[in-house]
Amino acid sequence: MAAKSPRVAASSSSSKPLHSSPIARLQSIANHMASPSITSFPAEVVPQAPEDPLFGLMRAYKADSSPDKVDLGIGAYRDDNAKPWVLPVVKKADEILRSDPEANHEYLPIAGLASLTSKAAELLLGNSAPAIAEKRTASVQTISGTGAVHLGALFLAKFYKIQGANRTVYVSNPTWANHHQIFTNVGLPIATYPYFNKETKGLDFDGMKKALGSAPDGSIILLHACAHNPTGVDPTPEQWREIASLMKEKKHFPFFDTAYQGFASGDLDRDAGPIRFFVEQGFELVIAQSFAKNFGLYGERAGCFHYVAAPSSNAAEITTRVASQLAILQRSEISNPPIYGARIASIVLNDPALFAEWQENLRTMSGRIIDMRNKLRGKLEELGTPGEWNHITDQIGMFSFTGLSEAQVLKLRTDYHIYMTKNGRISMAGLNSRNVDYVATAVDKVVREIQ
């Protein structure tokens, strides 16, 4: 027994690392975790991305404990009590849907809910549009307007390759910030055309025409159909006609983004006017359509993407081929679009009584926005605030480019707890009868202090 002791002791000693205590094992793990990790994605390859400015603004607003704080950055409608407004017609459609014994949660077809996409096309082009009657339209339900822009960008990136065409996408300066990322993410280069005149706070029409005229033939031109985001400045009907004539001469490809039909003026047909005019002029074009704002279905992500072929003997065949490729792209991205918001919108669009009530709801929202524009301008002029403020009422839709400088915007945030984007864009929906005078008075003080 004694002779074996040394070997047992030696064996015990040599195997100690294999049978270390739990404390030693934990220390070893801790040491390993504390050491620099090996990754395929080092900082020089995957740098920390900056926070989205709008969501950063929202976070700062929520963290502000001041009872006077005002959110003018939010891109969603608020009622006069500063609360989200569920449209009464949406509540009715929701009740119809929940009471339907045949309702289920099965997949939609890849192209989406046909009763929505067909009516969505009519909403944009008109009930008796020749393009629809001649089967020159292909419509796909998307993840709201963002998804529609992305699907269109993806389609163009893959298929817009005709001889002599320019794959650069021209967007207005400024435009909705997400436009830049969506197109560059699919490999399409971006260029800008002048749009906002900082001196007049209106449209730089001459600059826009010059840029579109000098762009290579066949360029892709992104156009806001109404309620331009972020400026609230729209071309007049006469200017739209000039734009269409110039684009036809240059063989440019129109890409319309429409997120505010009916919400801008309260008139669905008026807000669709530019799109209908371009279609009537024989353009081949695409349209991204959102139901977030005009139905208040922000989180339901209901929207559509539409292709419209130019009139020709084989337009229907072209449209069928385009639709087939859109379905393949959609299948590989989201497979099938979401159903709830689509059903809500479809119920309203297909019921004459509910459709009429929806139009009234749209007039309520657009009317309140117009009232806030009038009140803000009126108070600023009453106070004698330096500068001209007619642009507040000349602009249209949810947003207004106030002309305030970044320094003035930051002063409004730090001293008065009024939140807006640093370029001076405000959401008119953030104003109400209880805060509009406060905002105007604060703007007056800041403008006088920082010239």
What would you say this structure looks like, in words?
This protein is an alpha/beta fold and 451 residues long. The chain folds into two domains: 53-86 and 368-449, Alpha-Beta Complex (Aspartate Aminotransferase, domain 1); 107-350, Type I PLP-dependent aspartate aminotransferase-like (Major domain) (Aspartate Aminotransferase, domain 2, 3-Layer(aba) Sandwich), CATH 3.40.640.10. It has 19 helices and 13 strands. It has helices at residues 5-14, 22-34, 53-63, 88-98, 114-125, 130-133, 144-159, 177-185, 205-214, 237-250, 268-271, 273-280, 292-295, 315-333, 340-349, 352-383, 391-394, 406-416, 436-449; strands spanning 70-71, 137-143, 169-173, 190-194, 196-197, 202-203, 220-224, 253-258, 285-290, 302-308, 399-401, 418-419, 425-427. Strands 2-10-9-8-7-3-4 form a seven-stranded mixed beta sheet, sandwiched between helices. Helix 4 runs antiparallel to helix 16, helix 5 (114-125) packs across helix 15 and helix 16 packs across helix 19 (436-449). The chain starts with a helix and ends with a helix.
Major sheet details: 7 strands, mixed
Name given to the CATH architecture of the largest domain:
3-Layer(aba) Sandwich
Q: Stretches where pLDDT falls below 50 for ≥5 residues?
A: 1-19
Report the β-strand fraction as a percent range: 5-15%
Radius of gyration, Cα only, in angstroms? 28 Å
Q: Briefly note the CATH topology name of the largest domain.
A: Aspartate Aminotransferase, domain 2
Total DSSP helices: 19
**What is the CATH superfamily classification of the largest domain?**
Type I PLP-dependent aspartate aminotransferase-like (Major domain)
Question: CATH first level of the largest domain: which class?
Answer: Alpha Beta
Distance between the termini: 98 Å
Q: What's the rounded overall pLDDT mean? A: 90
- Overall 3D shape: globular
**Helix share of residues?**
40-55%
* Major β-sheet strand ordering: 2-10-9-8-7-3-4
Supply the number of structural domains: 2
How many strand segments?
13
Summing up helix and strand content along with how strands pair, one would put the structural category as alpha/beta
